[in-house]
Structure formats: structure tokens, C-alpha cells
Write a structure and sequence with these properties.
Shape: globular
Largest sheet: 8 strands, mixed
Oligomer: single chain
Number of helices: 11
Radius of gyration: 20 Å
Strand content: 5-15%
Helix content: 40-55%
Distance between the termini: 19 Å
Length: about 300
């Protein structure tokens, strides 16, 4: 089932790239591949110990990698991180941003939470719901997107050698989830990833219709993927994940890395939503004449073991 695409990794050479959530998981895996092919990579994360550790290790191998603390929910912290990435590049600009920072959806469903936690009463006010998942997974992505678009506009220093990377366009890579496309019970997580999908759709309305646009925007939508966020959360060992493990339901991290690399190396790839399944990696064909991913998603879910084991 997998769709195979050729990736010209040489186009990563000399690119200045910031990766939010770059200290672990999908962000770190993507950052490592970018660095291996000559990019100037900034790991931006709140996990300082991990970030410094991985940046030091990759730098020791001769790669151009730095770490900066970045709380994507904080505007000032994010501004400082993006400036750090610009200054790390000898060309003093930013060529690409891969926005992987996110947290898991462990808050449950609003319906069951309300029924389980707050008996109806006028004597006690109901519990205020947390907005942390939406703050990180959506508001943080919006902030990072606005900063990427701002610093993409910086002209490259002409004194550097070479002054420009092989590709000409700036690349914005968003990370959503299949939870933004299916009926997923974790309410906040589903909301946040559907919101990232909406952000993608609004941006591509400009980039795909303007032939003079110097920007590409794409979104990667992973299925269940074995990362530190997934395996290290409070549901580790839960029967849900046991089913995934026992039945080969994990979507490989490598699939996400490949699509991120494709988006950062091919200026012709623009306005696409890419999904990963255990069986492969696919363009969801999120276009009007394809039912905005509906037809492709129905085809993939029908043939995927996700439906067989009733995970969607």
C-alpha cells in the first residue's frame, strides 16, 4: 500500500531549520535526518536536559546542531528561540520550520468526564476543564507559525558561502494527527489537531493559488506512532496500547521523517496533507474534488487494521 517518493536529501544542505519539539520523538528523529544531510538545525524544546544532550551528541559527529529552550505557549520564549535559529545560520535567515511540539491527549471525552466527575448540583460548581492540550497543540503551533512566516522574510546574508540553499522556497511543516480526521474520543486532543488542520487549510489557500509565493506549507498526520510522548504517558501499559503492540499497529517514526524531508526538499510539494499508517505513508488527497480527504481516508481505513481492531 505504501506510496514511495524520491527525496533529494542533498537539498537540505545549508538550510537553516528550526524544529519545535526537537528534543525527542518525531522532532528529534526529523532533526537528526536534516542534520545528517548538511542543514543547520535548531532543536527548540522545553526539555532542556534532553535538548542539550542531543545537540551535543549530534554536534560531536560533525553536524551543525544547536539547542534553545522554547515554550511554544509563550510568545517571548518562542521569539527568542526563532532568533536563536536565525543567528545560528551563517546566512542569518530561516529556510524551514517543522512544528512538532505537542503533548498527548489524556484528558478523556467531555461527555464522560462530565458524567464521571461532576454530579449535577446547584450547591457545587462544576470542575473547570483544562486547556493545556489546546494551548500547546494548537495555540503554540499558531504562535510558531506566525514567527516562522515573519523570519522567513529575512534576506539571506550575501557574504556567506553559499548564500542560498539548493531550493528556493521557504518550507513550513505542520504536524497534526489522524485524530484531526476521525472520530477520536480524547476531546481536547481531537480539537487541537483538527485546529492544526484548519490552520494548514487557511495557509495553503494562499500558497497554492499564488504563483509568486515563496512559501510551501504541508501537514503530516501520523497514525499511532511509538514515541516518548505515546509510550511515556500515563496510559503506558493500558490495554489500548497492548492491542497496538500485539497486532503490529504502530506506524513507524521513519514514515514521518520521510515526509518531513520531502516537504523540506521539494518546492513542488505544496498544500499536501500526508498520513502514516502501519501499511505505509500516503497523500490524503485533501482537495475539493476528492471530498477533502474523505474518499482517500475511507479507502485507507477500510483496508487498514485500524478499523479491524476498532481503534477508529
Amino acid at each position: 500500500m505504501a506510496e514511495i517518493r524520491n527525496i533529494n536529501y542533498s537539498n537540505l544542505a545549508h538550510k537553516s531549520i528550526i524544529i519545535t519539539g526537537g528534543a525527542s520523538g518525531l522532532g528529534l528523529a526529523t532533526a537528526t535526518r536534516f542534520a545528517e544531510h548538511g542543514a543547520y538545525v535548531t532543536l527548540a524544546d522545553v526539555q532542556d536536559d534532553l535538548g542539550h544532550k542531543h545537540a551535543a551528541y549530534l554536534s560531536s559527529k560533525g553536524y551543525k546542531v544547536t539547542y534553545v529552550h522554547c515554550d511554544t505557549t509563550s510568545w517571548s520564549s518562542s521569539v527568542a528561540a526563532f532568533k536563536h535559529a536565525v543567528n545560528f545560520s551563517p546566512r542569518k535567515t530561516l529556510d524551514a520550520a517543522a512544528l512538532f511540539a505537542g503533548i498527548g491527549g489524556t484528558g478523556g471525552n467531555f461527555i464522560t468526564n462530565t458524567a464521571d466527575n461532576d454530579p449535577p448540583s446547584l450547591d457545587h460548581d462544576p470542575t473547570e476543564p483544562s486547556s493545556r492540550v489546546v494551548d500547546v497543540n494548537l495555540d503554540g503551533v499558531i504562535k510558531s507559525t506566525q514567527l516562522a512566516l515573519h523570519y522567513f522574510r529575512l534576506p539571506a546574508s550575501t557574504s556567506s558561502d553559499p548564500p542560498h540553499p539548493p531550493t528556493k522556497k521557504k518550507n513550513l511543516i505542520l504536524c497534526a494527527s489522524l485524530a484531526g480526521y476521525i472520530d477520536y474520543p480524547a476531546s481536547e486532543y481531537c480539537i487541537s489537531k483538527f485546529g492544526v488542520r484548519g490552520l494548514f487549510r487557511s495557509l495553503r489557500a494562499i500558497t497554492t493559488k499564488n504563483p509568486d509565493s515563496n512559501l510551501t506549507v504541508n501537514v503530516v498526520c501520523p497514525g499511532y506512532t511509538p514515541t516518548a510522548m505515546t509510550l511515556g504517558g500515563p496510559r503506558t501499559g493500558h490495554e489500548f496500547f497492548k492491542f497496538i503492540e500485539e497486532n503490529g499497529m504502530w506506524s513507524p517514526v521513519e514514515y514521518v521523517v520521510q515526509y518531513a524531508c520531502l516537504c523540506a526538499t521539494d518546492d513542488a510539494v505544496n498544500g499536501r496533507s500526508f498520513a502514516t499508517f502501519p501499511e505505509g505513508l500516503f497523500d490524503l488527497e485533501e482537495d475539493l474534488d476528492k471530498g477533502y480527504a474523505g474518499e482517500k481516508l475511507a479507502e485507507l481505513l477500510k483496508s487498514s487494521r485500524y478499523v479491524e481492531f476498532k481503534f477508529v
